[in-house]
UniProtKB/TrEMBL annotation:
CDD domains: Tryptophan_synthase_alpha. It catalyses: (1S,2R)-1-C-(indol-3-yl)glycerol 3-phosphate + L-serine = D-glyceraldehyde 3-phosphate + L-tryptophan + H2O. This is Tryptophan synthase alpha chain. The keyword Lyase applies.
Length: 267
């Protein structure tokens, strides 16, 4: 892992490094912006940030091809409540006033172009966003986004999956400046039964040949046990649908976050 020149990348790398010195993988919960409502989102995010090494905030989008039913429904609810792309960045800016934890925003490309790439990056920088997770942007097809992100101090994060070819893994790994996001299974997001590892060890072994940044694993991580499995092979553990479900069902989000964070240990 090597540092880059952007402010966001440096903060992201430092968060992973701190977790490593504590003998664990970095814990990165996910929450859809404006869920369960714009008014309630800050309190839920504060709860997650109390345990998080990094926080991933999703911009609600009407056609989230990489998201499973849980996050799709959360996006629909947030959009119905009026949470737009600009409102998401305002909500992140409010969080930044209270927290120094790195925040990365997950967004599809269309919301960026709807606002305008340069304006989007300006707003993200002003809000204190550290990086962008770009699930539907192949790094070899639109370098404008990555260049603008770097110009505004933001790291970029791309995804690989078990179906990625060695050539694609190399391309994506070398393009990431924040961390590399490895999808544990083929398909969409969501909590699953059984092991969270599957083909992950082999995929990460290949990715580490090229990655100069930490590698985080998401999709299918739902509890302390699955987080612990992933933490043995990855630098970071991403958990999303489990928290969306907990909020929906009125469960204790703070207890779940603390339990999963403990599961990120490597002992």
């Amino acid at each position: 892992m090597t540092a880059t020149t952007t402010r966001g990348a440096a903060r992201i790398h430092a968060a992973f490094a701190r977790a490593q010195t504590e003998g664990r993988a970095a814990f990165m919960p996910f929450l859809t912006a404006g869920y369960p409502s714009a008014a309630e989102f800050p309190a839920v995010a504060d709860t997650l940030l109390a345990q998080a090494d990094l926080l991933e905030v999703g911009i609600p989008y009407s056609d989230p091809l990489g998201d499973g039913p849980t996050i799709q429904r959360a996006s629909e609810q947030a959009l119905a409540g009026g949470t737009s792309t600009r409102r998401t960045l305002q909500l992140v800016g409010d969080l930044r006033q209270r927290h120094d934890t790195p925040i990365v925003v997950m967004t599809y490309v269309n919301p960026i172009y709807a606002v305008g790439p340069r304006e989007f990056m300006r707003l993200a920088q002003a809000a204190g966003v550290d990086g962008l997770i770009l699930p539907d942007l192949p790094p070899d097809q639109d370098i404008e986004i990555a260049d603008l992100a770097a110009e505004h101090g933001l790291a970029v994060i791309f995804l690989i999956a078990p179906t990625s070819t060695p050539e694609r893994v190399k391309l994506v790994a070398e393009a990431c400046t924040g961390f590399l996001y490895a999808v544990s299974v083929t398909g969409v997001t969501g909590a699953r039964e059984g092991s969270a590892l599957g083909e992950v060890p082999a995929m990460l072994a290949l990715a580490r040949l090229y990655a100069r940044v930490p590698i985080a694993v998401g999709f299918g991580v739902k509890d302390r046990q699955t987080a612990h499995q992933v933490a043995q092979v990855a630098d970071g553990v991403v958990v999303g649908s489990a928290f969306i479900n907990a909020v929906r069902d009125g469960e204790d989000v703070a207890a779940l976050a603390a339990d999963i964070r403990q599961g990120c240990s490597r002992d």
